[in-house]
Specification:
CATH class of the largest domain: Mainly Alpha
Distance between the termini: 44 Å
Mean pLDDT: 85
Strand content: under 5%
Number of strands: 2
Helix content: over 70%
Shape: globular
Largest sheet: 2 strands, antiparallel
CATH topology of the largest domain: MetI-like fold
CATH superfamily of the largest domain: MetI-like
CATH architecture of the largest domain: Orthogonal Bundle
Length: about 280
């Protein structure tokens, strides 16, 4: 009886904590929606900012954010997946691999502003990319690389060894086994890393501040070597700069709402793709 009572108490506490976390999330969303929905209209979403960003829209910032998300995923996803394949399927559990995993975990704990300084020193100055989409994408790609590696490693480890053994016993090479058996089965879980990466990239301000973000650039980029506006930095600017913060505050809330919506839509698309892969598997 005492065990059952203790179990019910523990589950009750877990339930209350879960509801509390969900309540905090809905509270934040409700606050942003309440203060930002009033400025959301077609003009706000499809035009450039005007009058020192006190009016107009945020379309260049939306395009810039999408460019940076796409660029960072292109940089980090193939590199992270291939690194995880090597450490999981080829390298074993030697001292060097353990050291690499420790360094990967440490890399994920470095503050994002350090990545921004490193990206400015390497990509902007040393490699001559300048303040550009290319420099920002590489910097953000390095930022999310540890996350992609770790989630991919866990996805690969979740595949039973019997599939590897069976494939090799049928005459397939290790590379064929990975490409035709292991990766297709692990891909739904690998997509989880992609989903988490999208949310991380979309909200980062410090790395793009040093490598790509423009204070006021009401035009669309024409190449990967152009600067862009981005929603996180634009939100920071209009919420902290200027002489009439009360007039720009609704624009800040509207920008935050659009950023949340973009992350939500991209996560839903990635989740749908993951479910489709799971169904096929």
């Amino acid at each position: 009886m005492n065990k059952k009572i203790n179990q019910n108490i523990a589950f009750g506490i877990f339930k209350i904590l879960g509801i509390g976390v969900a309540g905090i999330l809905f509270g934040i969303l409700g606050f942003i929606i309440y203060h930002g929905i009033g400025v959301i209209n077609w003009e706000f979403l499809t035009t450039a900012p005007t009058d020192g960003m006190t009016s107009g829209g945020i379309f260049p910032a939306i395009v810039g954010t999408l460019c940076l998300i796409a660029g960072s995923i292109i940089v980090a996803f193939p590199l992270g997946v291939m690194s995880a394949i090597y450490t999981t399927e080829y390298a074993g559990n030697g001292t060097i691999i353990k050291f690499i995993r420790i360094m990967t975990n440490n890399l994920s704990g470095i503050p994002s502003i350090i990545f921004g300084l490193f990206g400015m020193a390497l990509f902007v100055n040393t490699m001559g990319f300048g303040d550009s989409i290319l420099a920002g994408s590489f910097t953000l790609g390095l930022l999310i690389l540890p996350l992609v590696i770790r989630t991919t490693e866990e996805a690969l480890k979740s595949i039973p060894d019997s599939f590897r053994t069976g494939s090799l016993a049928l005459g397939a090479t290790r590379l064929q086994t990975i490409g035709r058996v292991i990766l297709p089965m692990a891909l739904p879980n690998i997509i989880t890393g992609l989903i988490l990466s999208i949310g991380r990239v979309a909200g980062e301000t410090a790395p793009i501040l040093f490598t790509v973000a423009a204070y006021f650039l009401p035009k669309l980029p024409e190449s990967i070597f152009d600067q862009v506006m981005a929603l996180p930095y634009h939100l920071y600017v209009i919420a902290t700069s200027g002489t009439d913060l009360e007039a720009t505050r609704p624009i800040a809330y509207g920008t935050a709402l659009v950023l949340i919506f973009i992350v939500l839509v991209m996560n839903l698309l990635a989740s749908s793709f993951r479910k489709l892969l799971e169904t096929k598997r």
